Amino acid sequence: MEKLEKIRKAYTEFVLEKGTPPPTVYQFAKKLKLTEAEFYEEYTSFEAIEADVWLAFFTQARQTVEEDAVYQTYSVREKLLAFYFTWFEVLKSQRSFAVYSYGRLRETARPQNPVLRARAANRPAASPILKPFREAFYDFARDLLAEGRESKEVEPRPFLGDRYVDGLWTQTLFLLDFWINDVSKGFERTDTAIEKSVNTAFDLIGRTPLDSLFDLAKFIYQNK
Question: Cα dist. 140→25, 33, 62, 165 in Å?
Answer without folding.
Answer: 34, 38, 8, 9
